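Same chain as my last thread, 98 residues:
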Amino acid sequence: METMHARRESWARHVQAWRDSGLTQVAYCQQHELKPKALAYWIRRSKQTATPLTLVPLAVQGPSVSGELLLQHASGWQVALPAGVDAAWLAGLLRGMA
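reply #2:
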């Protein structure tokens, strides 16, 4: 019986091989006799665990005149949110952007 660790490693290899193959998920699964839903599950799972969240320095400026919270990224994008935005919602947004 395959251990859970061995199963995770096996699927991680399949996910990476699929990414490297240039094939659609269905075509890859047909070649390797896998179920497309299973591959899709492990792809989603790898995205959730692949990038751990890290803390970054934050410069806080004085209160905004407009009552907005402005998030700016070094690459140039900006997101303006109402100053009273729900903290849990904002945390979810930031996790989704990682």
